[in-house]
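Re: weekly structure request thread

Next one in the queue (106 aa):
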Amino acid sequence: MQASTLVLNGKTNWYKRGRLHHPQFHIIMSNILYYFNRKKRNELYLKSTNPIQLNPIGFVESPYDEKFSVPRQPNLVAEGKGILRLIPPYNTPMQSEAWRNLVIFG
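Done, posted below.
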């Protein structure tokens, strides 16, 4: 029986009886389908009737300007206190739903 070959990315994949015998067949096919479906997904996203809008509920005031300057053990540094300032109408905890899902790690 004669087998035909297909070259993808410099690697030879063998076809026998019309089927691809390659250990990464499913990965190759999913990548191909992902590429061709990307245009369809982008069109559906642009036609979305419910776009996501993010509005800030507050701001954090911290003595640290960069992410990597924050100490790993914050309890050992007394001058490293931060403040969470909520903007109206989220600054009244009794009337706001923002407090329901707000988690503060300290």
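Residues 25-46 form the longest helix (22 residues). The helical segments are 25-46.
Next request, please.
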